[in-house]
Design a protein that fits this description.
2 helices; 194 residues; alpha+beta; six-stranded antiparallel beta sheet; three-stranded antiparallel beta sheet; 14% helix
Amino acid sequence: MKTKFLLVLAATSAFFSALSSVIIAPANAQLTTTASNVNVTVTVPEVLYLRTVSDIQLDITPQDLNSSLTSSGVYTETSPSTTADLTASTLDESSPFTTTVTKSIPKVFAVWSNTPRTGVNVTATTTTGTLSSSVTAGGLATFTSSVTSPASTTTAPGLAAPFTGGITLAVNLSAAKASGSYTGGTIAITANAP
C-alpha cells in the first residue's frame, strides 16, 4: 500500500512539474524594438479666397431724406415769417431734403488668406455708378462706393475664420424724379495680399 501511495505521489508530482513547465515557458516569445522617431514636413500652398454677395439692396427711409418725415413719408411745414400776395412771395424754395444719402452695408465680403506677408487689403470700385428708375421719366440716381473701415488686416485671417467687411454707398438723388427702384449699378470688389 505504501508502494502504491508512493507511485501515485510520484505520478502526481511528475504531472504538475510537466504542467508548470508548459505554463511558464511560452511557445513563442514576443519581441519589441525601441521607438524610431520619424520627422514629418507638410507644405501648404499660399491661397487668397474672396467671397462676395451677389446683390446689394439698399432701402432708403423717409427719415434718411428728412428727419421730420414720418415713416410713411409725410410732413407739413409752415414757414414762419413768410408772406405771399398777388405779386410776390417770400416762401423759401430750397429743398428740405438730403439729396446725398450715405449708408453702410455690413458683411458684403469675406476673405480667407494664409499669406505669410502683411495681411489682406480689400478695395471696392464703382464700375457702373448710374442707376435708372423703373418708372418712365423717373430720372437717375448716381452712387459711389468704398470699403467700410477697416478695409484691411495686417495679419492673414487664415483658412478657418475669414476677414469680413462691408461697403459704404453714397447715393446722390438730386436727379431722381420718382420713388421706386433704381437699378443697373455695379461694384467691383478686389482682395489682394501684398
